[in-house]
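Feature request, filed as a ticket because there's no other form

It would be nice if the structure record came with a short human-readable summary line next to the tokens. Right now we just get the raw output. Example of a typical job, pasted below so the devs can see what we mean:
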Amino acid sequence: MITEEKCYVMTCDKCGCVCNEQGHSDRNNAIEAADDSGWYISENKHYCPDCYEMDDNEQLVLK
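Raw output as currently delivered:
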């Protein structure tokens, strides 16, 4: 049997890659997994480690 389930994944706002493609049962777990993987997470922006770096003043710089 195949059933459909709703899951949550973090998607990079710059390149569109997905963190942990298996998905998570709730939003908080998806956020925690991305944070553990080095993603930049703010109120409304999410960037994978390949798309950002922090400058000497700890300011976000997109690659």
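Something like this underneath would help us a lot:
The chain has one domain: 8-62.
The first helix runs from residue 27 to 36.
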